[in-house]
């Protein structure tokens, strides 16, 4: 099995003291790495510099949670991909369902942001996933299929771009998708990637996200075609984040 990526999305959590203390706990536990897992944390913009500084020299990399589609200019309050890179970020989460919902981001916006990330040498982690209503109406494959078509630009699979499948109803709810559902959706996403990008689509990592925790991680990470996890709440405790990483190592 190839290395899995365990990515922590801290979302809008962490004043400087919190971020410093969590980063220090990660630094002390990081050791020489985690077997089959690559580790990444994505703090809020305001803490990236602090966290990247503390984690320098460890096996844990740092990413952003969003970026603007332009590299610079008159965009009050926005952060560009080169700015993230400048702070030490290696990755950026794009098209998270909270951005799609709260900021009305559409696939075309996400696609433009992926291009911006690529120009700044950041690895994009593009989130896709259906709502509960869409799944109840049996529309989950259609929704995710369209998100993949619309959000991923040409050549996406030639780089290190990552896709994260996050059923919206499983995010922050404690309701995890069953391993059967995860297997079915990851197989569907893989088939879509190959249809869109040819052979290169076989190598794109597909993460699962949605209430992943220290207890359920081993089962989810052992599912075929799960290339890692995008972890929200459980990534705010170093011990839980490491337990998930350890589960990946056993995958
Ligand atoms: O980006 C992370 C996901 O939204 C999952 O969040 P969660 O682990 O708190 O459910």
From TrEMBL:
Under the heading InterPro entries, the entry gives:
Aldolase_TIM (IPR013785), TIM_sf (IPR035990), TrioseP_Isoase_bac/euk (IPR022896), Triosephosphate_isomerase (IPR000652), Triosephosphate_isomerase_AS (IPR020861)
UniProt keyword list: Cytoplasm, Gluconeogenesis, Glycolysis, Isomerase
Q: Name one GO cellular component term.
A: cytosol
Q: What's the domain of life for this entry?
A: Bacteria
| Intracellular or extracellular location(s) | Cytoplasm
What Pfam families does the record tag this protein with?
TIM
Main location class: cytoplasm
Summarizing the function annotation, the protein's role is: Involved in the gluconeogenesis. Catalyzes stereospecifically the conversion of dihydroxyacetone phosphate (DHAP) to D-glyceraldehyde-3-phosphate (G3P).
What protein is this chain from? Triosephosphate isomerase
Q: Which organism is it from?
A: Lichenicola cladoniae
């Amino acid at each position: 099995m190839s290395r899995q990526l365990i990515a922590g999305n801290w979302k809008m959590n962490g004043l400087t003291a919190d971020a410093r203390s969590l980063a220090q706990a990660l630094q002390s536990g990081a050791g020489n790495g985690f077997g089959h897992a690559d580790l990444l944390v994505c703090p809020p913009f305001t803490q990236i510099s602090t966290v990247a500084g503390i984690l320098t020299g460890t096996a844990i990399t740092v990413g952003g949670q969003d970026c603007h589609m332009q590299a610079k200019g008159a965009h009050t309050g926005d952060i560009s991909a080169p700015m993230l890179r400048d702070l030490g970020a290696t990755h950026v989460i794009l098209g998270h369902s909270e951005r799609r919902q709260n900021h009305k981001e559409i696939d075309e916006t996400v696609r433009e942001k992926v291009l911006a990330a690529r120009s700044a040498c950041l690895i994009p982690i593009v989130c896709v996933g259906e709502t509960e209503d869409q799944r109840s109406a049996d529309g989950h494959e259609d929704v995710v299929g369209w998100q993949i078509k619309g959000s991923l630009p040409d050549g996406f699979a030639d780089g290190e771009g990552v896709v994260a499948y996050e059923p919206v109803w499983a995010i922050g709810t404690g309701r995890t998708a069953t391993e059967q559902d995860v297997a079915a959706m990851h197989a569907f996403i893989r088939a879509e990637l190959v249809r869109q990008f040819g052979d290169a689509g076989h190598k794109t990592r597909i993460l699962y996200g949605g209430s992943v925790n220290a207890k359920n991680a081993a089962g989810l990470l052992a599912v075929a075609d799960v290339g890692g996890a995008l972890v929200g709440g459980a990534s705010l405790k170093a011990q839980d984040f490491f337990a998930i990483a350890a589960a990946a190592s056993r995958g």
